[in-house]
Amino acid sequence: MDSSKNNHHSERCTMGVEGLDIVLSGGLPKNRLYLIKGDPGVGKTTLAMQFLLEGVKCGETGLYITLSETKDEIMVVAKSHGWDLAGIHLYELSSIEEKIRHDTESTFFHPSEIELNRTISALIDEVKRVNPARVVFDSLSELRMLADTPLRYRRQILQLKQFFAGRDCTSLLLDDRSSNSNDLQVESIAHGVLVLSCAPSGYGVAQRQLRVVKIRGSEFMEGTHDLILKKGGMEIFPRLVAAEGITEFTRENFSSGIGELDQLLGGGLGRGTSTIFMGPPGTGKSTLTLQFALRAAELGEKVLLFIFDETLGTLLDRSAKMGMDLNPMVEKGMILIQTVDPAEISPGELAHGARQAVTKNGVRMIIIDSINGYLNAMPAERYLVLQLHELLGYLNQQGVITILVLAQQGLIGQMHASVDLTYLADTVLLLRFYESRGEVKQAISVIKKRSGDHERTIRRLIVNIKGISVGEPLHEFQGVLTGVPMLMDAQEAR
């Protein structure tokens, strides 16, 4: 076997879509025919244009053959993204029909087979004339309708594949599945298949995803990858794999700066671990995260906060009034705050943002407040657990301290959360309200800590305009976690 030929075919064709080359392990193998499937409006045309524009950047000739849209419609799409298609040849169906009419002026009615053959012939002639390195056919539905029968359609696709096999050309066939969504004719012929999908949400933006079904003889990232369509094109967020990056770091405890809290935590939060702050609304979970964020920033470590439940203005105002002004550290770039609207963001985009913050911005602490808001961005609870498992695993291996806030339902007595994630976290802090002498007070305890020992007591937590303070263990009370404790006498307390 000619090794030079093998090396030639192993070359990659970069796609021009951010994140897609990562999914494809560098791009599509060159000089092959690929199928891009997806319902109308999912982003096939956008992907195809970016593919051709990337070719122009690489000095390659591109040809866009549109069978379902006019040149004007294609130009409108390009203009909406700010693209210049001057370097791409456009060939539309009306040109093909004109050529067919010119070749058969004496015939009033043409059987579908004759029309299909001549359409394919016209397409091939245009490819020969332009001699492109990249070509896009949009879409196959027109050819499928002309073929009339599956057998005839398959033969014509095979004819196209054989034609391109002898040319240095990478081809994308777009299929909007409008004729037959279960048609696997082209999938079996194509060298690779990419599927774009769009799932409408009950509220907010639709969830768009990409999945690579196959690429013969080439590695790729399996599974579904979230994507967005925005001005400037498509962006894909490769599925986060926890094992993809392991960084050496010193395993040590990170101090909160509050002595009693560090005692409770057995020295602090473990570096390279995840922690859940859990409790009913108002117990001080978010305020506690700010204490750790400020402490990290003061020690020269960058912090990223994903805020779901309050606006940036409210957060900054509240923190300043409690003596924990974030503004100086925000202005220095030590604390990064990203407000998140769960109706406008996909889980993949959030995970991608966390990864970029760690790898490019050097973030050493990530706070998600709250997981309840994150849950609303997920299509199903089981996906939330899988996504978080991968995200926490990745961040832990990068030596990042991750803090998650989980709001429980209820105020006093038995609490429950909409989803149980405590088994995912390395450390769990439990916050509670309790009644004492006609007052509602707060308590804090550590339920578990995988990275070391911790104090087993329940301590009083005080959150006010002076900030956060942690009191002595509540030895004199029994039943604090029930919300209505009993005062014990001195002998029982011992």
In short:
Helix content is about 35%, strand content about 25%. With about 500 residues, it is an alpha/beta fold.
Sheet with most strands: strand arrangement: 5-4-6-7-3-8-9-10-11
Q: Superfamily at the CATH H level of the largest domain?
A: P-loop containing nucleotide triphosphate hydrolases
Beta-strand content bin: 25-35%
**Mean residue pLDDT:** 85
CATH architecture of the largest domain: 3-Layer(aba) Sandwich
Number of helices: 17
CATH class of the largest domain: Alpha Beta
The gyration radius over C-alpha positions equals 30 Å
Going by helix content, strand content and strand pairing, the class is alpha/beta
Shape: elongated
Number of domain modules: 2
Q: Can you describe this structure?
A:
It is elongated and about 95 Å long. The model is unreliable at 1-9, 104-110 and 490-494 (pLDDT under 50). A nine-stranded mixed beta sheet has the order 5-4-6-7-3-8-9-10-11, with helices on both faces. The protein has a nine-stranded mixed beta sheet with strand order 16-15-17-18-14-19-20-21-22, with helices on both faces. A hairpin with a 2-residue loop joins strand 10 (224-230) and strand 11 (233-237). By secondary structure, the chain is of the alpha/beta class. The protein is built from 17 helices and 24 strands. It folds into two domains: 3-239, Rossmann fold, CATH 3.40.50; 243-493, Rossmann fold (3-Layer(aba) Sandwich).
